[in-house]
Amino acid sequence: MRTARISKATVARRELVSVTGEPIAVPDEGALVHLQFRRFAGCPVCELHLRSIVKRHDEIVRANVREVVLFHSTVEELLPYAVDLPFPFIADPTKDLYAEFGVESGVRALLDPRVWRAIFYGVVLSLWAVVRGKKPLPPKPRGGRVGLPADFLIAPDGRVIASHYGAHAYDQWSVDELLALARDAR
User: Fold this and answer.
1) pLDDT tens digits along 159-180
2) Does 56 have pLDDT greater than 70?
3) Does domain 14-185 sit in CATH 3.40.30.10?
4) What is the pLDDT of residue 159?
5) Taking the CB of residue 81, how many other CB atoms lie within 10 A of it?
6) How confident is the model at residue 62 (pLDDT cuts 50, 70, 90)?
7) What Cα–Cα distance (Å) separates residue 44 from each residue in 119, 156, 173?
8) Cβ(92)–Cβ(74) under 8 Å?
9) How many CB atoms lie within 10 A of CB 6?
10) CA max distance for the chain
11) How far apart are CA 143 and CA 157, in angstroms?
12) Residues 138-153: tens digit of each pLDDT
C-alpha cells in the first residue's frame, strides 16, 4: 500500500450542498468521510476511478465510510454525471475548497506516463457512453484539465486521519487502500 500522509489537521464542521440540493455534513457525526477531490465534470480519468468506487460502494458503507466527491465544475455541468450515483457530488467551480485543502494543479497530471493508460481507457469508455447517448460530451473545464486528485479520510470529530495528494491524474486511493485506512481508524 502507498503511504498516505498522516495529518494532525482538523476539518472545521461545515455543511456542503450536493448538486442535487442535499445538505452534506463534513465531518459526519456518524461516519468517517472520504472526501475526494477530482478534476472536472465528465473527466474520463475521474469517471474510471469512480466506477471502482460504485462497484464496491456497499463494502465502503459497511466500513462506515461516507463518500463525498468534489469537482471544480458548476452544478449544471455536474448534474448529468451525478445521476444514479450512490454518493454526493459537490460543485466547487471557484476551487475554494481545493485551495483550503492544498489540492494543486500541474502539468504532471497528464504528462506522467503512469496516467496514460487510464487516460486512454477512460476516453474510450467516455466516448462509448457519449455515442450511446448515456452521457453528454464533457464541457470545457473551467478549472483547467491539469488538476490533481486528492483524498482525505476525516473522523467524525473532524480529525484528518489520512490524506493523499496525487502525483498524476490517476493517483488516488484504491478501494482496498481506503478500506484498510478505515479499518486502522477503528
Assistant:
1) 999 999 998 888 999 999 999 9
2) yes
3) yes
4) 95
5) 22
6) very high
7) 7, 32, 17
8) no
9) 11
10) 47
11) 31
12) 777 676 677 899 999 9
Residue with cell 495529518: 7
Nearest to residue 35, comparing CAs of 128, 142, 127, 165? 165
| CA–CA separation, 108 and 92 (whole Å) | 22
Which DSSP symbol is given to 154? E
Show the DSSP H helices in 5-136 as ranges.
44-55, 57-62, 75-82, 96-100, 108-111, 113-131
pTM of the model: 0.85
- Give the Å distances, CA to CA, from 99 to 23, 65, 90, 95: 21, 24, 15, 6
DSSP letter at 2 equals P
CA-wise closest residue to 24 among 108, 99, 111, 87: 87
